[in-house]
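Before going further, learn to read the protein records used in this course. The integers have meaning only within a learned vocabulary of local backbone shapes. To see the layout at work, look at the sequence and tokens printed below.
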Amino acid sequence: MTLENIKLDVDYVRSQFPAFKDPLSKDWSFFENAGGSYVPNNVIDKLTEFMTSTKVQPYAEYPMSKIAGENMDRATELFAKMINAKKNEIIIGGSTSINLYVLSNALKKFLNVGDDVIVTNQDHEANISPWRKLKDVGANIVEWKFNINNQELELSELEKLITTKTKILAVTHCSNIVGSVNNLKAICDIAHKNNIIVIGDGVSYAPHGFPDVKELGVDFYTFSLYKTYGPHLGLLYGKEEILKDLPNQNHEFLNGQYPYTINPGGPNHEELVSLIGIYDYFENLYSHHFESDNLNILEKIKKINDLISTHEEYIANPILDYISNRKDFKLIGKSSIKNKNRAPTISFVSKNKSSKEISKLLIKDKIATRNDNFYAWRCLKHLGIDTDDGVVRLSMVHYNNISDSNKILNSLDKF
């Protein structure tokens, strides 16, 4: 059976997530996934197991401690394989925001007064403010603005901004408002020809398919694990050759012991171990859909990514088509998904109602969503949208189904 003939078994997917059976949430269609996803049973089981049996200081020789340390190491190693990284290139911290603030403080080493740091106005603030703060050490902050007509970051504009003084470029892989998937590989190619370090923000990309960081060629890459079916943690990948040269941001005795040098305080033990549950969930997805077990972890992830992309296209395009054809609505970003050129993160505003009003009407129909600027206030400001009222955002992932899509369409059609 070819991949083209295999469809994501969304009923099986939903059976893995207890939220769809829980009395509080079971009757709701969940469209706030870009703010944080539900978690599968595998993650809950691993968290419970750790807290029940091994909630001790890890890495000692007695059994509970030894098992705790082994599972912490296994979680890190599995996630490294899922994104094609080495184990010592992975940092698990409290959040993406924390990870990037620590990284920006370390990367000051590579800057001289007057050097340029490029940021965009399309990103979430987590990948803007840490780099903008480098002006305090004499960096010149340069803004790569998206095209206001199509809301896209254009490579030709980036090339105009690069000078011999450009040292760092921070850019989103996928906007949490516009939804477009930026060509991060092409961006890295341009940057590296000019010896620029690239930090990619994958927070809004990773929930729709884990990246191959080596294929992208990015120097650093980050995403939020609580948006990829896990606990409230953030993952940061960094190339080993850069990590080992960064100044220590942790305890003094850890000098030279990267990547711990970029993770002050270390990871949350129990939540780190629960990441094994994310791997288990994706392994189960693969086993449910495919017969061959001869592939490595990365190859399996890529097959599941393809299934997810096809399904998300199927459930999101009817909504995109509807909103883009409503004369009283303004859709932000592309009007359809094709070959993963955008995420099923759909933002819009209305000419006749505030975003808050629309959000309240959707909630009355048991559609879990919200209005906000979603920490991408510079993006909304560039578009002339009230940053307090913000946009209505409908964000889907692979456990959403066509019934959810139809529920949105029926609700929007009432007003």
Observations:
- The first helix runs from residue 10 to 15.
- Residues 3-38+299-412 form a domain with the Aspartate Aminotransferase, domain 1 fold (CATH 3.90.1150.10).
